[in-house]
Each structure stands twice: as structure tokens, then as C-alpha cells.
Design goal:
The longest helix has 29 residues, at 55-83. The chain is elongated, with a radius of gyration of 18 Å. The chain has helices at 12-39, 45-51, 55-83, 87-113. It is mainly alpha-helical.
Length: 115
């Protein structure tokens, strides 16, 4: 069977793999931040600034933000298509929630790199 790979349609396998990959990145970031909070005796602005001053931490944080956005996008699409049947209402809710998720990443970009 020949399938067209140049399509914008998603399939269940792609969504499943994307959700698992983003969940791993989110979990790793959460574990790392938990480790920082547990291992640092006192978190001050200076300590916080030192943690996020390295390029590695900025990239890791941005990857976590993008992962959250993709996780939200796919997860909400799956939940909304199951529970909200009117297409116009579902599209409106998806639009608003995707806009919020994008704004979350945009604000994170500005905070991380001061763009």
C-alpha cells in the first residue's frame, strides 16, 4: 500500500509517539527542577539567575516549553474530539487553548533570552 507522506493529516501512531516524546522531555525537566529545589539550600534571585544563565539550561527550558505546547495541542485535540461534538464550539475552544499555549511559549522565549 502506498501512502502520501506529504499530507498534513495526523495519524494515531504519530500522535502517540509525539505525546510520549514530549512527556519524557517534560518529566526530565520536572525531575531536574525538583533536584535543584531539593539540593539548593536557599533559592535567591542570584542563584536562580545562575541556574538559567547557561545556554544548556535555556535550551532545555525552551524544549520543555515547546514540549508542553505540543503535548497540550495533541492532548486537547483528542479530549475535545471525544467530548465536544458541535464542530464550531470545539474549533473555538481549540483555537483559544492553542493560542494560550503559544502565548506561554512566546512569553517563555522572551523571559529566557530577553528577545
Amino acid at each position: 500500500m502506498v501512502t502520501n507522506q506529504a499530507t498534513f493529516k495526523r495519524d494515531g501512531i504519530q500522535d502517540w509517539v509525539s505525546l510520549r516524546a514530549t512527556a519524557i522531555i517534560i518529566a526530565l525537566f520536572s525531575f531536574y527542577m525538583t533536584y535543584i529545589f531539593i539540593s539548593t539550600p536557599e533559592i535567591t534571585y542570584t542563584v536562580w539567575q545562575e541556574i538559567f544563565s547557561s545556554l544548556t539550561m535555556k535550551v532545555f527550558t525552551f524544549a520543555a516549553l515547546v514540549s508542553i505546547m505540543l503535548h497540550v495541542r495533541i492532548g486537547l485535540w483528542q479530549v475535545l474530539t471525544d467530548y465536544i461534538k458541535p464542530a464550531a464550539l470545539r474549533a473555538g475552544i481549540q483555537y483559544v487553548l492553542n493560542l494560550i499555549a503559544f502565548a506561554y511559549v512566546a512569553v517563555g522565549l522572551f523571559v529566557l533570552w530577553g528577545v
